[in-house]
Amino acid sequence: MLGINGPEFILLLIIGLLVIGPSRLPEYTQKLANIVKEVRRMASGAREQIKEEVGIDIDDVDWKKYDPRQYDPRRIIKEALLDDDTKPVSAGAPAAVATVAAATAAAERRPARAVERLPAGEPAPFDSEAT
Between the chain's N and C termini, which has fewer beta carbons within 10 Å? Predict the structure, then answer.
């Protein structure tokens, strides 16, 4: 209850009894009970009004679907990069899909390109016309 444990609650009751006084304590207790009842009535009225206007019950809503944490861009990109896109193409696929799949497969079989290195101490070539 609001982060108050047993001993703290008893201490608050004792302080309330001393501040308010034993003669006015029943009156304030009744006022507090009326406030709690009114707040509960307002909350249930709001729930009924939402149900009436929206047409759905709040308990039936899948709140996980509206959780903003599921739209974390880092998670979406991570899942997209780790997704396995090397699925086989069926025989009835359009020609463009089959061509792209064949080109991808050919690129994977291509031998690695040889990289030429400059001898140690030689500066890299300079292109004066490059921007």
Answer: C
pTM score above 0.70:
no
- What average pLDDT does the segment 82-91 reach? 66
pLDDT at res. 118: 87
The conformation of residue 70, written as its DSSP 8-state character, comes to G
Residues 89, 101: contact at Cβ < 8 Å?
yes
Taking only Cα atoms into account, the Rg of the chain, rounded to an integer number of angstroms, comes to 36
Torsion of CA 93, 95, 97, 99, to 10 degrees: 130
Question: Could you give the CA distance from residue 95 to residue 99 in angstroms, rounded to a whole number?
Answer: 6
